[in-house]
């Protein structure tokens, strides 16, 4: 599984001021509706339901909201770089500016967890995050995500 297979270039955006998680989830819903045909409200509601279980912020300005959504035939994602950090309830109290949302069919099983692990590994790489924060062009951001972390020679 490669990150480029999870997120279409059209599902990468730079967002201006977002003042709440609800507004962010609606924005993500708009993105996945345009990119994958997913219903905007269903996507936003699924993210909110998952978020109610506990914050999906992982620290260092990164959030990985995810949900299972009926009607999908494959795992897909959306990436938003926020121009202003949003309070996301992160344990490190740092606002979130990099958001990678992941959606999976209800029967995705372990593939959903594998996709989430891949996204998590990519977003833990400080070089990748620095490049994402330094760019405002969605095409460039998609290329950075698709390239992933540089392999570390032993």
Based on the model shown, name its key terms.
154 residues; 6 strands; globular; alpha/beta; 43% helix; 6 helices; Mannitol-specific EII, Chain A; 6-stranded mixed beta sheet
Helix content: 40-55%
Main structural class: alpha/beta
Question: Which sequence of SSEs, written as H and E, runs from N to C?
Answer: HEHHEEEEEHHH
Strand content: 15-25%
Low-confidence stretches: none
User: Any idea what the CATH architecture is?
Assistant: 3-Layer(aba) Sandwich
Compute the average pLDDT: 91
CATH topology: Mannitol-specific EII, Chain A
Distance, first to last CA: 23 Å
Total beta strands:
6
**CATH hierarchy, class:** Alpha Beta
> What shape does the CA trace take?
globular
Biggest sheet details: 6 strands, mixed
Characterise the protein shown here.
The protein has 154 residues and is α/β, with parallel strands linked by helices. It has one domain: 3-Layer(aba) Sandwich (Mannitol-specific EII, Chain A). Helices cover 43% and strands 21% of the residues. Strands 1, 2, 3, 4, 5 and 6 form a six-stranded mixed β-sheet that branches. A hairpin with a 2-residue loop joins strand 2 and strand 3. 37% of the residues are buried.
Can you describe this structure in just a few lines?
By secondary structure, the chain is α/β, with parallel strands linked by helices. It has 6 helices and 6 strands.
SSE topology sketch:
Layout: H1 3-6, E1 12-15, H2 21-36, H3 40-52, E2 57-59, E3 62-63, E4 66-68, E5 76-86, E6 96-104, H4 110-124, H5 126-133, H6 138-147
Parallel strand pairs: 1-5, 3-6, 4-6
Antiparallel strand pairs: 2-3, 5-6
């Amino acid at each position: 599984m490669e990150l480029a297979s999870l997120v279409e270039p059209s599902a990468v955006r730079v967002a201006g001021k977002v003042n709440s998680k609800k507004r962010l989830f609606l924005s993500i819903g708009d993105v996945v509706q345009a990119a994958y045909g997913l219903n905007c409200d269903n996507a936003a509601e699924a993210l909110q339901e998952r978020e109610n279980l506990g914050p999906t912020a992982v620290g260092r300005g990164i959030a990985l909201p995810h949900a299972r959504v009926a009607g999908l035939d494959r795992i897909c994602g959306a990436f938003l770089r926020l121009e202003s950090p949003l309070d996301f309830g992160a344990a490190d109290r740092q606002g979130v500016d990099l958001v990678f949302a992941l959606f999976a069919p209800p029967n995705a099983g372990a593939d959903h967890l594998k996709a989430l692990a891949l996204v998590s590994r990519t977003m833990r790489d400080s070089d990748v995050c620095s490049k994402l924060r330094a760019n405002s062009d969605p095409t460039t951001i998609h290329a950075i995500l698709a390239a992933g972390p540089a392999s570390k020679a032993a």
